[in-house]
Specification:
- The chain is an alpha+beta fold and 288 residues long.
- 27% of the residues lie in helices and 34% in strands.
- The strands form 5 sheets. It has a 6-stranded antiparallel barrel with strand order 1-2-3-6-5-4. The protein has a 4-stranded mixed sheet with strand order 9-16-11-12. A two-stranded antiparallel sheet has the order 7-8.
- α1 crosses α4.
- The chain is elongated and about 90 Å long.
């Protein structure tokens, strides 16, 4: 049986060529309103988006935040993106509202990573030669250039101009960082600041004080056993605010509720602030 072909990152912006790259990339995805960091590696990049291998599951159409460092670029690229596809760990991410500053950073990296960087007809190698008093081209040094061919006019940029260009790009990147932070803050506002539901596994690791329930003698005599499941609301200070039984016999539910009511959890933090959360607590009663 032949393997299915790997998906191709498709984007409506066909004018941007992709460039291979191998650098770490950090993704931030909202899961049940909670930001989750997913590490990965960027495999290619363009002004339209990136291809990456990410250590986590993503859903097509999901919005994420991306941060990666391009070689030879002082500031990181930070942008929002949509998940276009994911096959196993490979995914394609399309930039959403990429600012001009971020585009310039990508273009600058492409320029620096080229084998012979150029700005149009201008070449940095020619600039170095001219500063040393050497001819800019091989034809000029050997005198073999055809006289009928008129040399093209080149744009000359001094070192000061280059430094001004780089400083301007860094300034624009700083503005882009502020815009990225503002956009991601708007995305985070969609998450609730209280009443967040947290998985039982996560809250189980945050238990500070745990009291085991007493096995009711009446239930023991009747041979009653089984799992009691409680829906719990944990206050910002880590105390149990309320409990609601979801399953279990009445005798066991009463004993489990009395015990869990005295449990204490480490406060759950969201954006550095302790908040109220909901979770599920299971108490298992076994005769043996």
């Amino acid at each position: 049986m032949s393997a299915a072909p790997s998906p191709v990152f498709e984007t409506p912006q066909r004018g941007f060529s992709r460039h291979p790259i191998n650098v770490p990339v950090d993704l931030i995805a909202l899961r049940s309103g909670v930001p989750e960091n997913l590490p990965g590696r960027c495999t290619d990049i363009s002004e339209a988006g990136v291809g990456a291998v990410v250590a986590g599951e993503l859903a097509t159409g999901q919005q994420v935040a991306i941060e990666l460092h391009l070689p030879n670029v002082g500031l990181p690229v930070r942008a929002r993106a949509l998940v276009r596809y994911q096959s196993k760990l490979h995914c394609g991410l399309q930039f959403v509202g990429l600012s001009m500053e971020q585009r310039e950073m990508i273009r600058y990296w492409v320029y620096r990573s080229a084998s012979e960087p150029t700005f149009g007809d201008f070449k940095f190698g020619d600039l170095r030669k001219e500063e040393k008093g050497e001819p800019a081209t091989a034809e000029a040094s050997t005198g073999t250039a055809e006289p009928a061919v008129r040399p093209s006019r080149r744009i000359r940029i001094g070192r000061r101009g280059i430094f001004v260009l780089i400083a301007g790009m860094l300034l624009m990147a700083g503005v882009g960082w502020w815009q990225w932070q503002k956009s991601w803050s708007e995305l985070e506002k969609r998450a609730p600041e209280s009443g967040l539901r947290v998985s039982p596994e996560t809250m189980d690791k945050r238990i500070v004080t745990k009291v085991d329930p007493v096995y009711p003698e009446a239930a023991r005599t009747a041979g009653a056993e089984g799992l009691v499941v409680l829906d719990a609301v944990i206050a910002p200070d880590g105390s149990v605010k309320s409990l609601r039984p979801l399953s279990g016999t009445d005798l066991l539910v009463r004993s489990a509720t009395e015990a869990v009511q005295s449990w204490k959890f480490e406060p759950y933090l969201y954006s550095g602030k302790a908040i109220e959360v909901e979770t599920t607590i299971a108490v298992d009663f076994r005769l043996n």
